[in-house]
Amino acid sequence: MKKVLPAVASLGVDRIVLVNAARVEKSYFDSKVLDAAFVHELLIQGLEQARDTRLPEVLVRERFRPFVEDELDAVFGKETLRLLPHPPAKQPLRALGVGTAQRVVLAIGPDGGWVPFETDLLEAHGFHPFSLGPRILRVETAVPVLLGQVTLLREDITAPSEPTRA
To answer: What positions does the domain Ribosomal RNA small subunit methyltransferase E methyltransferase occupy (predicted)?
Structure first.
């Protein structure tokens, strides 16, 4: 998170949900990394880098299934393009209509990826799996790569002087 949160803030993401998953270390949600003051400081670093002032909202959810089943629609709305980067998928991101979507939500798994139950549940709730390419990336690499790709694909629908919000 020390590298991911500043990058996310500097790239204009407006909401982040850190949700527990099967391959997340059990002690992670008790660690200093998720302390509100620590998270705030990392986000501020990213905003300073980008010369932005809109602090992303950060939600922490320790239970995966209840979040997906009970909160997902309320947190992101039903009219979002929901994307699931997942190595077995063959479809490229550019084929999923990112350029015409009003809002994009990415479900980026932990290092080690999502387990089949998690991908099945995400797909059942409207997430479209796609391939990021042949390489498996760590979260700290995948997040800025994905946000950069989404931003590039969305450039056609935003005004030239208006920064893109992912």
So the answer is: 1-148
Looking at residue 16, its amino acid is: I
Sequence letter at residue 141: T
Neighbouring residues of 157: CB distance < 8 A, sequence distance ≥ 6: 99, 100
Topology of domain 4-157, per CATH? Alpha/beta knot (3.40.1280)
CB within 8 Å of 8: residues ≥ 6 apart: 16, 43, 46, 56, 143, 147
- pTM of the predicted model as reported, rounded to 2 decimal places: 0.90
Residue 7: name the closest of 161, 150, 145 by CA: 145
Torsion on CA atoms 133, 127, 18, 6, rounded to nearest 10: 50
Contact 50, 9 (CB under 8 A): yes
Domain ranges, ordered by start, for the chain: 4-157
Q: What would the two tokens of residue 124 be?
A: 């059942």
**CB contact at 8 A, 40 and 1:** no
